[in-house]
Amino acid sequence: MHIAQTRLSIATAPREIKEITAEVARWTERQRISVGLLTLYIPHTSAPLLIQENASPDVRRDLDAFLPRIVPENVAPYRHHDEGPDDMPAHIKSALTQTQLSIPVTDGRLQQGIFPLEHRASPHCRALILTLVGEEEEPARRSGERHCSG
Amino acid sequence: MHIAQTRLSIATAPREIKEITAEVARWTERQRISVGLLTLYIPHTSAPLLIQENASPDVRRDLDAFLPRIVPENVAPYRHHDEGPDDMPAHIKSALTQTQLSIPVTDGRLQQGIFPLEHRASPHCRALILTLVGEEEEPARRSGERHCSG
Amino acid sequence: MHIAQTRLSIATAPREIKEITAEVARWTERQRISVGLLTLYIPHTSAPLLIQENASPDVRRDLDAFLPRIVPENVAPYRHHDEGPDDMPAHIKSALTQTQLSIPVTDGRLQQGIFPLEHRASPHCRALILTLVGEEEEPARRSGERHCSG
Fold first, then answer.
1. Is B99 on the interface with A (CB under 8 A)?
2. Minimal CA–CA distance to C106: which of C35, C29, C38?
């Protein structure tokens, strides 16, 4: 068993949902872990992670349009608005989505596309900490896969 | 330390909240990990996981009734509706709930009931990837438990 | 690679958002893991975890005020109200936030403040299970950090 850890810095445009799959996959593959678990962690409470289909940009746009409908972006109901009217809504959206994700690595590869969701109105430099735990060799004890029947 | 990984396939009925605790617990116990961490991952963005009490089916029904109240199921506000009017609402519900969960294993047993939440209107075959990391023997360094006082 | 696990008990006041960073950090540092991953798990479905800034208490108050706006606290729409009108709303808030979190440990230290979100109207004794996986020594294979440019 091995553990590897790194910190990436990602420049995000305002409210951009930025795809970072390629960068994360490249680092992961360099660690030569065959079977493992990659944990992504964003040490910011106003830029949660979002795992979604990377096929359709419409999915991203619809998600981006949905969140302000349930989390209003105005100063009125909030006490905390030190960094502007988008500050507290960003914290709430973070609490409703995710700041951490653990994704399986199988045959040396990640199982899914990942992109962070940028909830602030201004551009930011976001940190992303990757921690990978796993085996270099395929474990012999790996059990057989099962499929849906009928 | 060991790692074990498998893929289960689960047939879900439309909008079914399907209990999969027994299947997951059976695989986990076969790995003979005494102290560890089991990570469940659903590589679909329209069928998140949900950990809830397995006591009351009313809890499941109420959850199922709540989500459409905040995530409307109609084509109007969404750009993405390639797979029908329940497609984009399922993605949004996924973003608001969870697609991955890590549950402690103590004395060889899982700590909680698990079931996936099926957000689509039609039946699906869902994959679930299990990754278990842990020790076969109880570690000597395990520290004493603490309890609430007063 | 090592694994360590413990169970903390936390007394929470009604709807209190209780900071538990100091207790969690103290246990983590005692394990002498240099690089690792700490997973916090609350085996209750009505007291999810919340990672937020520990700077401003206004952030916590605003979050606490926001959730009842989208999750109404009355018996009317729910079937499940065995433990009172705040029972089912607490389950829904749990499903919308998080019950588990994995936080990186770097140079023997946790990367973020943590506090559980108490969703019930009455005081409770909450369990919190900590599982730490990691290496005592810094791995040589740790790769260089990258920073935002421009």
1. yes
2. C35
